[in-house]
Structures are given as structure tokens and as C-alpha cells.
Write a structure and sequence with these properties.
Blueprint lengths: L1 H20 L2 H25 L1 H14 L1
Length: 64
């Protein structure tokens, strides 16, 4: 019985070890947070500069 427990423990450790080293999910979350931060910054900049942006597009439309 003790041998069976020992073998089972080694099997569980062998199966769990690769999953403990995986960091794909963590990396995905980090990239998502970076994208969200950048998008908030870009949105804030566009709101702050909306008058100037509208003027640029108006100038381009007039020139065409």
C-alpha cells in the first residue's frame, strides 16, 4: 500500500510540475493591462485635444 502511495505521489508531482511553471496566462493579463492603460491615455488625449483634431480634419476636408 505504501508503494502505491509513493508512486501516486510521484505521478501527481510529475503532472503538476509543468503547470506550475507556465506563465502564459499571467503574460496575457499583463499585456491586457498595458493595452487598457494605453487606450485610456489615448482617449484622454483625444478628449483634451478634440477641438484641434476637429480643426485638422476640417482643414484636410477643405484642402481636398
Amino acid at each position: 500500500m505504501e508503494q502505491v502511495k509513493s508512486v501516486m505521489n510521484r505521478m501527481l508531482i510529475a503532472l503538476a510540475a509543468p503547470s506550475l511553471k507556465r506563465e502564459e496566462g499571467q503574460t496575457l493579463v499583463e499585456y491586457a493591462l498595458i493595452i487598457v492603460t494605453i487606450s485610456i491615455g489615448v482617449t484622454g488625449a483625444m478628449l483634451f485635444l478634440r477641438g484641434k483634431i476637429a480643426q485638422v480634419f476640417s482643414d484636410i476636408g477643405t484642402a481636398l
